[in-house]
Amino acid sequence: MSDERWHLLDDDARDEEFYEPEEPTGEECSTNKTVFDGKISFAVALWYPQMGGYHGKAVAVFDKGWYIEGSMGHGGCVEIYVWHDGEFPFSDSGRRPATLHLCEPEQFIEFGEKLSEYNERGRRQE
User: Fold this and answer.
1) How many Å apart are CA 122 and CA 99, to the nearest integer?
2) SS3 118
3) Which of 4, 7, 41, 51 yields a CA-CA distance of 20 to 30 A from 89?
4) Is residue 87 a contact partner of residue 52, using CB atoms and an 8 Å limit?
5) pLDDT at 67 over 90
6) Cβ(36)–Cβ(28) under 8 Å?
7) Is the pTM of this model over 0.85?
8) Would you list the domain boundaries of the chain?
9) Rounded CA gap, 65 and 54, in Å?
């Protein structure tokens, strides 16, 4: 959170800055349940894409107060917590959940589209 917004927060909202979710259930992920709704952020359970043969339970934490001023975004990042039952490819620390920080979710979508595009090149033609 930027320093200019920090002083505007009350104690509850400051505590929210350090929110780390508990592992969601499969049902919560399947229904995209909102597992947290605070003053400055909210969190949604969902399934993380398959890696190493396993899907991962995930919680994405979204900023409620982000905005765009001119061409500059202020906030809007997404913190993702992932619990994965297989060997986790992001870290060798073994920490659960693994955490990811996405500055712009659109970049993650573009990355996935490029993966699909390039993966198609390797498909055997019959």
Assistant:
1) 31
2) helix
3) 41
4) yes
5) no
6) no
7) no
8) 3-121
9) 34
